[in-house]
Each structure stands twice: as structure tokens, then as C-alpha cells.
Amino acid sequence: MMRAGRFAPLSALVLAGCLASKGDVALLQNHLNTMSQAAASNSEAQRAQMDRAIEQILAQIARNNDSVRVVSSRLAKLQGDVQNDHYEMGRQILQLQELSGQGQRRVQELRASLEERNNQAGVVPATPGDMAHPAPAAPGPAQLFQSSLDQLRRGATGVARNGFEELLRNYPNTEDAPEAMVFIAETFAAERNQVAADSVYGLVIQRYPKSPKAATALYKRALSMKAAGQSAAARAAFDRIIKNYPRSDEAALAKEQLRSIR
Questions:
Q1: What is the pTM of this model?
Q2: What are the domain boundaries of the chain?
Q3: What is the CATH number of domain 137-260?
Q4: Tens digit of pLDDT for each residue in 85-118?
């Protein structure tokens, strides 16, 4: 309706046979120019508004991309940290496992050294009034155990066995007794006297059923049975280890051995 009203003067001029004056034509031209400028101005404003909207959208997308990159970077770092933690944890467990055996040997050595110092400090005279030649005190259980173990490591199986047997005679209730008896069996095994070794392993199981060394003795005996072709007896021994000593290292080894017995 507005456009029709605006162009009414022009229609009137045409209908009037172009009888309008020059002033009327100029007025109409000015009116048309104003309308064109207004339309162009509106178009530019709309384009500027649209450009600003596009810029805002692009800026938001850029911010979102930055946020995604930050989150991805943090996630990658977290995954790397977790993997490193797992690796470090595994490495520390291995170190603890390695040090546990070393620690036990070190404690045994320290006990033997302490006993030796105590014996040297508490020596008694060989004869009353004779202070010039004191008689050394008898070695303690830790000393006997450590010296016998040293002999066994050197390959002196007979000397080592004698030392362990002396330990058991003089200190039958020492905490090292089960392990000393296992080492006695190993001296026989090193001399290829498997019958005697198996017999001593059996004594360990019989005398010290609740000791961790009972699992060791039973496992070594089961290995001897397996090597001798006594599959049924070996299988029964491995099953006994798993049942009676489920938390022992020998139980895990026994499970592996059972897989290889047909």
C-alpha cells in the first residue's frame, strides 16, 4: 500500500498526459532518490549486523575448539600419568620382591654378627684365675646358621650339613630350624642322594607343618617325584601345597607344574 501511495504522483503524471511541471518531476526524482538511499542504508545495516553475528559465531567456535584442545591435552596428560603410575608401581613391587629376599639374608647376617660381638664381650676364663687365655663362648644359632649357609654356597656340602645339624642339636627351638633342615636336604640333593634328601624334606613337613618352609619342602619333594616319573604322587603333592599353603609362592608354582603333568 505504501509503495502504491509513493508512486501515485508518477501515475497521475502519466495519466495526465505528462502535463506535470518540471518542479513536480524534480520533486518526484528527489523522493525516489531518498527511497533508494534508505533501502541501501537498510541493506548495509543488515549486512553489518549479519557480519557481526557471523564473527561472534566464529569466535565462539574458536573458543570451543580451544577448550576441546585444552581438555584433550589434559586427558592425554592424565592417561600418561596413569600409565607412568602403573609402571612405577610395578617397578616398585619388583624392587620390593627383590629386596625381600636380600632383606632376609641381611637380617640373618646382622643377627650372626650381633651374636658374635656378644660372645666376644661375654667370654669366660678357661680356668679360674687365668684371665690371659679366655675361652670363646659357643656360637649362637644365627652364627651357626650363617656359617653353615656360607659353607653350602661354597660347595662344602658336608661341612654345611654338619653345621646345620649342630644348630638343630644345640638350638632345636630356634626359628631357623625349619630352614636349616631344608638346607640339610639340599646338601644331600647336591650330592645326588635324592633318597636322603626326600627323607629330610618329609621330616620338615612332619615337624613344622605350619612353617612356610613346609611348603618349600613339599614342593621340592613333589619335583623329585615328578622327575622320577611318579606322576600321581607328584600331582597329589602339588594339590596338597595349593590346599594347605594357598598364599605361598610354592602354591603358584605348583599350579604351573600341574599343567605339565599328564
A1: 0.52
A2: 57-110, 137-260
A3: 1.25.40.10
A4: 544 554 454 455 445 555 555 555 555 555 555 5
